[in-house]
RNA sequence: UGGGGUGUCGUCUAAGGGUAGGACAGCGGACUCUGGAUCCGCCGGUCGUGGUUCGAAUCCACGCACCCCAGCCA
């Protein structure tokens, strides 16, 4: 079983390899360094790197950096870091901008062959003519004039945006992408990677096929919106193969797959930026976000992200996946590796009337169904905290927790029986209760057996914790519902609670992921948590069996 | 409008002329010192209309719906 789920692309790859079309599979993950990676990118990453791994090929990380105005070194580094965090090691880390000279030579070749021309038309006029399917008045300049103009463009003799180099294909082609697409534009702006060496920059449609061809990419995988661009991709390669140092064959081929879309969140760069810059979240790594850095900070493991991508498959159907599936995969990933501990997120104090002193119980880290061993000392004493939600004065039918006249089991400890409720201003302030003697590891000898089990901590021993409870970012499946995605933001996407956790965690490695029994999976926030002031993120809640 | 795509349970995804299957969600049950996990069961689908065929999700025709393109972004 490979990393990549079987799909139309693995079929193509297998066919091409079997027929000897390529000696070795070469793919690439080609992000533009103008933003941070999010979970949607994970599909492309898994596809490209996974394919290389599955079929003994190579996969490069290549920055598609042909637009100096939007790209930054900082983004490139963050992207590389995220790719590695997911567990992939690029064969090489490459930059499209390193090929600018070759691309320039390719452009000259096209000009010499009468397949490209310099156009002086202002942007709006070009767009208007293109819409009408009419040729530019500059379309039939001589090769000599085109050559001279293009060289002068490179030398910086013309201002930004004043001229472009266009492919001479067909001004009236039904596919608008083929109506003499722009190959080069003038931009007087420094480039984060190659500095100020260039004032002309190639367009995606010209650069991308050349990048792939130069690197020997065999399968150029991209998302559906580039489908129309494939015609230019092929045009560029067919017209330049065997020239400018490019091989005759084999040549790369482009295949498109559907983007990964998730419900209850946003994956568009524009909206993500709005959330960050508008202060709706604390930054690009705010655990409410679907960015890889945010998921990492939240506590999601890369294994879970990859498994999620595998489970959703790769197809050409534009599909939005329900976030429940993602959460389920995260739980599945954590369940076998997260030791169980007790913590209380919303504390309600309980004073025992028939217990004094303290004792240290040995509590197993793992439930029966997980074949792991290990226990930790768990202090028990007269004053405890239980979860406020685990007590009810007027319990509904089916209530299995603490209530007047209803016993509960304290996890790993005694059976508890309510004696008195101290209220203040209509709010329950304190519970007085007694322990049923002889119920440590045994059922009560008389009276009813407890119906349920609740978690607790010893008040005197517990460590205070700031709990950050994360929920879905948006209230609606589709954040755009109603027209303004900001209006659908979930005000409870982050709920902060002051609670307690059992003292054993102080002994654990800081990056331990726990299951707080009956609450969910948690770990210490890698940014804000300190030993003397614990901050714990809820990675994902447990599946809630109880429906009120 | 032209061009390019996509339509299978609520949501993803298989089935490539031969019993429409799986996962997630939902519902019900078993088990349980986590209302977790696990196990069992149920619910539920081929965009429409014709055609070809012994047999169609699959092939053909005509529709319909949705997405993408008409940046000197990628």
TrEMBL record:
GO terms for molecular function: ligase activity. It catalyses: tRNA(Gln) + L-glutamine + ATP = L-glutaminyl-tRNA(Gln) + AMP + diphosphate. This is Glutamine--tRNA ligase. Keywords: Aminoacyl-tRNA synthetase, ATP-binding, Cytoplasm, Ligase, Nucleotide-binding, Protein biosynthesis. Belongs to the class-I aminoacyl-tRNA synthetase family. Residues 453-525 form the tRNA synthetases class I (E and Q) anti-codon binding domain. The keyword Aminoacyl-tRNA synthetase applies. Residues 25-335 form the Glutamyl/glutaminyl-tRNA synthetase class Ib catalytic domain. Residues 338-434 form the Glutamyl/glutaminyl-tRNA synthetase class Ib anti-codon binding domain. PANTHER family: GLUTAMATE--TRNA LIGASE, GLUTAMINE-TRNA LIGASE. Gene3D superfamilies: HUPs, Ribosomal Protein L25, Chain P. Its EC number is 6.1.1.18. It comes from Thermus composti. The keyword 4Fe-4S does not apply. PROSITE patterns: AA_TRNA_LIGASE_I.
């Amino acid at each position: 079983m490979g990393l990549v789920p079987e799909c139309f692309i693995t079929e193509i790859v297998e066919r091409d390899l079997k027929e000897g079309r390529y000696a070795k599979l070469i793919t690439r993950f080609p992000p533009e360094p103008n933003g941070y990676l999010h979970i949607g990118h994970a599909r492309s990453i898994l596809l490209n790197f996974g394919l290389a791994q599955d079929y003994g090929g190579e996969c490069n990380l290549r920055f598609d950096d042909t637009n100096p105005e939007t790209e930054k070194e900082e983004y490139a580094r963050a992207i590389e870091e995220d790719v590695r965090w997911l567990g992939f090691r690029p064969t090489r880390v490459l930059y499209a901008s390193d090929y600018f000279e070759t691309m320039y030579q390719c452009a000259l070749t096209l000009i010499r062959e009468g397949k490209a021309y310099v156009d002086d038309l202002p942007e709006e006029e070009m767009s208007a003519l293109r819409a009408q399917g009419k040729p530019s008045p500059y379309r039939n300049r001589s090769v000599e004039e085109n050559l001279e103009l293009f060289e002068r463009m490179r030398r910086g003799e013309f201002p930004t945006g004043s001229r472009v180099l266009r492919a001479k294909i067909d001004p009236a082609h039904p596919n608008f992408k083929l109506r003499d697409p722009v190959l080069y534009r003038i931009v007087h702006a420094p480039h984060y990677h190659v500095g100020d060496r260039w004032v002309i920059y190639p367009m995606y449609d010209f650069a991308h096929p050349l990048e792939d061809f130069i690197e020997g990419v065999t399968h150029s995988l991209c998302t559906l919106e580039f489908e129309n661009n494939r015609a230019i991709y092929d045009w560029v390669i067919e017209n330049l193969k065997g020239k400018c140092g490019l091989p005759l064959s084999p040549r790369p081929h482009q295949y498109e797959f559907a983007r990964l879309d998730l419900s209850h969140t946003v994956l568009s760069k524009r909206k993500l930026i709005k959330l960050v810059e508008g202060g709706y979240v604390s930054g690009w790594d705010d655990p409410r976000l679907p960015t890889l850095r945010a998921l990492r900070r939240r506590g999601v493991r890369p294994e879970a992200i990859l498994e999620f991508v595998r489970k959703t498959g790769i197809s050409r159907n534009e599909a939005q996946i329900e976030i429940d599936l993602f959460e389920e995969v995260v739980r599945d990933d954590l369940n076998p590796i997260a030791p169980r501990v007790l913590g209380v997120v919303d504390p309600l104090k309980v004073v025992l009337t028939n217990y004094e002193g303290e004792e240290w119980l040995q509590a197993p880290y793992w439930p029966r169904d997980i074949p792991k061993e290990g226990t930790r000392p768990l202090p028990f004493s007269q004053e405890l905290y239980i979860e406020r939600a685990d007590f009810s004065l007027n319990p509904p039918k089916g209530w299995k927790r603490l209530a007047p006249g209803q016993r509960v089991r304290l996890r790993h400890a005694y059976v508890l029986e309510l004696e008195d409720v101290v209220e203040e201003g209509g709010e329950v302030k304190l519970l007085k209760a007694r322990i049923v003697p002889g119920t440590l590891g045994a059922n009560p000898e008389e009276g009813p057996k407890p119906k349920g089990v609740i978690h607790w901590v010893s008040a005197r021993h517990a460590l205070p914790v700031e709990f950050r409870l994360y929920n879905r970012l948006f209230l609606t499946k589709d954040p755009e519902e109603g027209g303004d995605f900001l209006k659908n933001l979930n005000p409870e996407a982050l709920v902060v609670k002051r609670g307690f956790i059992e003292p054993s965690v102080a002994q654990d490695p800081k990056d331990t992921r726990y299951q707080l029994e009956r609450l969910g999976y948690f770990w210490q926030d890698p940014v804000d948590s300190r030993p003397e002031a614990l901050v714990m993120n809820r990675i994902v809640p447990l599946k809630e069996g109880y429906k009120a």
